[in-house]
Write a structure and sequence with these properties.
Layout (H helix, E strand, L loop, with lengths): L35 H14 L14 H31 L4 H21 L2 H6 L3 H9 L7 H9 L7 H14 L1 H13 L4 E3 L5 E3 L5 H4 L5 H17 L1 H21 L5 H6 L6 H12 L2 H15 L23 H11 L5 H11 L5 E2 L11 E3 L7 E3 L8 H22 L2 H4 L3 H21 L4 H37 L6 H16 L26 H20 L3 H8 L6 H7 L8 H21 L1
Parallel strand pairs: 3-5
Antiparallel strand pairs: 1-2, 4-5
Helix pairs in contact: 1-2, 2-3, 3-7, 5-6, 8-11, 11-20, 13-20, 14-25, 15-17, 15-19, 17-19, 19-20, 19-22, 20-21, 20-22, 20-25, 22-25
Amino acid sequence: MNLFFHTAPDAASSARPRSEVAESDTWDLAALYPDDSAWEKDFARLKDGYPAIKEFRGRLAEGISTVCEALTLEESVGRRVESLSQYAGLKVSEDSAYDPSLAREARLDAEMVQLAEAYSFVAPELLALSDKAFDALLAAPELAPWKTSLEKLKRMKPHTLTAGEERLLALGSAALRGHQETFSQLTNVDMVFGTVKDEDGTERAVTQSSLSSFLTRRDPRVRREAFHSFYAEIGAHRYTLASSLAHSVRADVFHARARNYPSALEAALYPDQVPVAVYDALASSVRGRLSALHRYYALRKRVLGLDAIHHYDTYVPMVADIQTDVPWDDAVEKVLSALHPLGDEYTSVLAEGLGKGRWCDRYENKGKRSGAFSSGSYAGPPYILMNYKADVFSDVYTLAHEVGHSMHTWYARRDQNFQNYHYPIFLAEVASTFNEILLTEHLLAQTGDRRMRAYIINRQIDDLRGTLFRQTMFAEFEKAAHAAEEAGEGLTLETFRRIYRGILDPYFGADFAIDDELELECLRIPHFYSAFYVYKYATGLSAAAALARGVLETGDTSRYLGFLSSGGSRFPIETLAAAGVDMLTPAPVEAALDLFERRVAELEELLD
């Protein structure tokens, strides 16, 4: 789940240089390549080897053996590309201002354009076969490892262009992705978000990583000043950011039209075989339950004693003076204990990975990408990037979330071949939020203290709010912004602000004080530059809640572990149905919304 952010290098920042970080706190990339020179050698092999695919151009109609040879070569190249890409991406994530890592990734990106061009004939030639010939491929024992891939390819026939047209799209792919690089470099390297004096009067840097810590402080001045300092820098670059976002939307619309989709939304949903009705039903269900969200904001305002509640007041824990200093080793132990219901294999593999296996890069350093992700491959372990802070309790949840992704990859890689182990994002968000739910249930079971229970329930409410309500709000913005472009409306800064404000108002409610700067939030959300991703957080949480309830109530892990092991061998709706969750109905989303309402009522009883 790689996203490209890191902290801006700033003299006032307390983050250490990468060279000062203890090796035990960093990931061990030796399973991919022991050093940069080994990567260079494999990169040279890629450059020398993949042009051989061109020998199959115009020959895929010859028969099963030729197709098998071509796909075998494609698999070999794909494995190499995956390892090269993962290593290059992880090295950039360590320090996005380190030029050799940037240059390595740039060279690989340039080669990927050539590779895409070389392979651009494969899909059109296969889809040009008669139905009888294609069905023969599906039935051939030699092609059994590729059967699922071929079935998915056949479904893409209406949206696959001629070989020449596919080549042009491949050649233009890097240029059409340029807005992502601009956004990443601007927000992660060039921007400096200022400093704020904390409660002790110490001047501290505001960064993309540290902002979350500032917003959990008890002192409302610290929260307010950090928010305004951060958005002052966003505001100073608002026109550049708006231009980048507009080009991102235009690129999505271009691809959708080029491939004959009715809309960019349908183009995004089609590969996963997710009906637009699922996307729209999510928004409809959440919109219908906004009163519960407003009720929670009213409780938060009341408990915190605020004259007015702002966005920067929505992350501070409502229960004061609870010890939230959780060192890394304690966080790992909490997560492992919470995941005990999944069995010894799951927890022992994970314990090894987070310990001696060094899957995880733990702490912030200068230039490191902000946030967190899990990045898996078939060749190496599933690596985890964290910017762990002991004073941010939500980072324990972040760890649980990312190890959910990682163990999903571990099981899928173990039980599927290379072609089928990749699971779509729609399913990835199920595994991650499943772990967060188990963590909450474990923490609640470990305490009888009324205030601690309130603290944990508040944490889950904020998680549900951030995933179910906030991501659905984001999904509404993405749909509206793309619809505006498709209708011919100019995408300017003011257009984005108007659309976003029209969504902020109903989601936050009439009694919420919305700062004008919050209208600029739409310019800084990284997922908006890879559109129609965020709804999967909300649907994933809904499915995860249903699966977690089943495991905790019955003790039967077979369906859930089977879900993890299935990888991408089926379409996501089908995969979840096999695990017992029907996402074609509103029931899972409504059940998750019911959980939110119950937790708000519990918190009211505990605090009022």
